[in-house]
Specification:
This protein is of the alpha+beta class and 201 residues long. The protein has helices spanning 9-18, 25-41, 62-65, 176-188; strands at 67-74, 83-94, 97-106, 113-122, 130-135, 139-148, 154-159, 166-169, 197-198. Strand 1 and strand 2 form a beta hairpin.
Length: 201
């Protein structure tokens, strides 16, 4: 759900990391192994903000928002081709701050699981629906939760520019009818739906 452009900032980040004074080969190798996972799991933050997503339709109760969210529909990018059965787990770290554990199966839905730990901070207190994700302590990208179910069974989220919408749910899969309904809702909200892929169970 969270991500950034792999052809721009990520490439510069890798190059910069390799030149860090005092960074050992083992540390840099570990960083290189972790970075593609974070990119694959974080499509929603894939590009710098050039426009604006629709304003959130509902506010969030952050206590109810915490927990596990499975990816159901996503807008792909070049780093998602090898990521399957993705989900994320949110937990509180302190006032307005959150830990996000991102999980992805590599190669297939039964492939080895890889996990990346990221953080987020709240940007908009009235709605509680705008966040800034923080990768590796230095890379920061914004995303918004645009809509949600009354019972918090699903959510529609996107990068802050509105270009990478996705649907996540509390269960690994949603019915085809429900997915079609949520696609229509995304279109009503002004989000692009033409490239959405069904990736749930």
């Amino acid at each position: 759900m969270l991500g950034f452009d792999t052809k721009g900032g990520a490439g510069r980040f890798i190059q910069g990391a390799s030149n860090c004074v005092g960074a050992g080969d083992g540390e840099f190798d570990a960083m290189k192994r972790s970075l593609p996972i974070a990119l694959a799991l974080s499509v929603l933050l894939a590009l710098p903000v050039s426009a604006a997503a629709p304003e959130p339709a509902r506010s969030l109760d952050l206590n109810r928002f915490m927990g596990r969210w499975y990816e159901i529909l996503r807008t792909p990018n070049d780093r998602q081709k090898n990521c399957y059965a993705a989900y994320q787990v949110w937990s509180r770290k302190g006032p307005g701050r959150f830990a996000i554990s991102q999980h992805c199966r590599k190669g297939s839905r039964s492939g080895p699981e890889e996990v990346v730990q990221t953080e987020a901070r709240l940007l908009d207190h009235p709605s509680n629906a705008k966040f800034q994700a923080i990768f590796f302590g230095v890379l920061k990208k914004d995303y918004w939760v645009i809509d949600r179910a009354e019972d918090y069974s699903w959510m529609i989220a996107t990068s802050a520019d509105g270009r990478f919408p996705a649907v996540l749910a509390r269960t690994p899969g949603l019915s085809a009818a429900k997915q079609a309904e949520l696609k229509r809702r995304m279109a009503q909200l002004g989000l692009p739906t033409g490239q959405l892929q069904a990736v749930g169970a």
